[in-house]
UniProtKB/TrEMBL annotation:
Name of the protein in its database record: Na(+)/H(+) antiporter NhaA
Keyword terms: Antiport, Cell membrane, Ion transport, Membrane, Sodium, Sodium transport, Transmembrane, Transmembrane helix, Transport
Signal peptide: none
Gene3D superfamilies membership: Na+/H+ antiporter like domain
Amino acid sequence: MPIPPRAQGKAYVRSEISTPTRKYSIPIQQLMYAEQASGLSLLIGTVVALIWVNSPWAHVYHQLWGTVLTIDLNVLQISLDAHHWVNKGLMVLFFFLMGLEIKRELVHGQLSIWRQAALPAIAAVGGMILPTLIYLAFTWNSEGATAWGIPIATDIAFALGLLALLGSRIPRELKIFLLAFAVADDIGGVLVIALFYTRELSLWAIGAALVLIVFWLGLRRFEIQNRGIYVLIAILLWLAVLKSGIHPTIVGVIIGLLTPAHRYYRYEEFTYYAGRLVEEARGAIQQGEHERTSMLLGQLEELTRYTEESVERLERLIRPWVSYCVLPIFALANAGIVLSIEGVEAALGSPLALGILVALIVGKPMGILGGSWLAVRLKLAVLPPQVSWSHITGVALLGGMGFTVALFITSLAVEAVSLVSEARVGIFIASITAGLLGYFFLLLYGTRPPLQEQELDDKQKRTVWAIILSRLCARK
């Protein structure tokens, strides 16, 4: 994604104060919000995990993520190993960002209008149903059948990163379609995790979580703006859901969806009140009233903050942390696959790994493309401007990259160590294959404008050639 305008504006102001900031601030911000860099950080975490676990220091890797960390609050004790702290704790930020994206798309984006939402939504449904059926066809009556949720979701970081590598050759509408499709895909993935990968339930903990959500909504209703209160409720909600038996990462999505998606002050209101504050501050400066000047500037700062949507502000602040901290650590903790010819051959001979491979490489693209075609055929949706079926096919191939959420569901659905290893090998190979297929397909076939916009009818062609010939004759 490009630099958010608010972040870019703040960088420009800082650049006027500091020479190093002037030289490095904007390039660093461009790097922080670039899809390529985000996908690259995830890739680096994956490569480091692979090298580490296949090195003589593999025992250090397993000891690190097996280290048990305990928080004892007297009334409540939480004891998890480092691997589960990452998956159940740190990944809440990833799902929080996902919830913010879903909220933004539902309120302002491609999912806010049915006509616009139909194509990516139906494509996402097709991209969930078909790979699930293919996976179950391979694993039916086996121990791996419970992991049918693995091929459901698309890794948006890798997919957008590869799409961004194609630059301006890809229409902007295609990137918007991919983002909307991935958000709809994520909604399905979150529902699957919440409904089907929850074991024993604690009713008192669920009740406590519901009370906290109602309390949050009450604070929102009375426009309470104290951020510390909301952070405290978020922590308590995470603890309640953790004890309930539901996977606590769902808390991130819930809080993201509860975040306001409107501005408290419209731009017109801001300019009116800000103008008055500036005039008062000018008078206070002239009279040497430094304390009053500082107070007025504080009002102006707070007024400026409330012209930005909470969803937009939190997404802007959290995205770099998720992209360059949370996801690489998650990859480091979950991508430790022992690679050997014998191990890969054994994994590829298992129904679980084969099911993942075929589901992601074949089922996912077919489901996305079939859902898109059905939506257009039934006239529920139309292709976006500048987007052709070649573009949709390329995005459908990229949809087979199920790395992050697939590994996450593996940690929930599979318990046997041998099956976890097989699943990881299948996810790893399928994601690489799908990414390469999608990238090179778009590179070869998806960078041209749609046929209907590229070609002219015969009459228009004759007119164009007549103009060209007349100009050539005039030059002679």
